[in-house]
Amino acid sequence: MEAEMKNILIVDDDSFLLDMYALKFIKSNFDVSTSLGSALALEKLRGGLSPDIILLDIMMPEMDGFELYEKIKEENLAPKAKTIFLSNRGQPSDVTRANALGAAGYIIKASCIPSEVIEKVVKIINDSNKQQ
Predict the structure, then answer these.
(1) Of 27, 67, 69, 131, which is least surrounded by CB within 10 A?
(2) Measured over all CA atoms, what is the biggest interatomic distance in the chain, rounded to whole angstroms?
(3) pLDDT tens-digit map of 18-66
């Protein structure tokens, strides 16, 4: 990974997972912001937060990750951010929807330990940077 620190926004409605992933990403030299749910994430982005990466859960109350991502794009919030979905939902239709929306990647929580999630995020970012 490049020497520069990457800013990541992690959005999940599970505070335990949010804290755990935040800690893991901080230890991997990421500058981490977290949002407990979609509404808070929108508020932060509208307030000027401009992450390089948005790690987004799908299953959340009020507004799911897909709806949040559509809103972020619609309002042109964080236009440079690479969005990666991190979900327990592994249905092909979800992966297809994420790709159709323009997500940089899709990681299934249940099939990865946290260190693997970080490895996958770094790989997705590096791969997408090579394609530019």
Answers:
(1) 131
(2) 37
(3) 999 999 999 999 999 999 999 999 999 999 999 999 999 999 998 999 9
